[in-house]
Design goal:
Low-confidence stretches: none
Radius of gyration: 23 Å
Structural class: mainly alpha
Strand content: 5-15%
Number of strands: 2
Helix content: 55-70%
Mean pLDDT: 91
Strand order of the largest sheet: 1-2
Order of helices and strands: HEEHHHHH
Length: 124
């Protein structure tokens, strides 16, 4: 009588007195995971454990994290210049008052990051 694993095409190898299934993880590729990908992984581990486990078992976790990281970076590249333009943070302000420019740009980046985190990292 074959086990379900054997019926699905699985094989075993004998190590001493034990039969161990021959399991191979799928090729994970070479994915670059940055800040937002790491934040997404932490969020999934802590708050969405079943989804995290499903990604791990399917072998798609790193692909998912890479996609989230890329989407977040692209969104930041769109939001920050748009907010800077809307608020009048220009190169003229930078040359006239550098500290004011830095203060405003930091504020813009922080707000844009909150938007991106809420939209892509923590709400999916």
């Amino acid at each position: 009588m074959k086990s379900l694993f054997e019926e699905m095409g699985g094989t075993y190898r004998q190590v001493g007195d034990y039969f161990i299934p021959n399991l191979v993880l799928p090729d994970t590729g070479n994915y670059q995971i940055g800040k937002y990908g790491r934040l997404r992984r932490s969020y999934l581990k802590e708050h969405r454990k079943i989804l995290y486990t499903n990604y791990v078992m399917d072998g798609t976790l790193f692909k998912h994290l890479s996609e989230i990281d890329q989407a977040c970076n692209e969104r930041m590249e769109i939001i920050v210049p748009a907010m800077a333009k809307q608020e009048g943070v220009t190169e003229a302000l930078k040359s006239a008052d550098q500290m004011e420019w830095v203060c405003r740009m930091n504020s813009i980046r922080n707000r844009a990051e909150e938007i991106v985190l809420h939209e892509l990292v923590y709400d999916q």
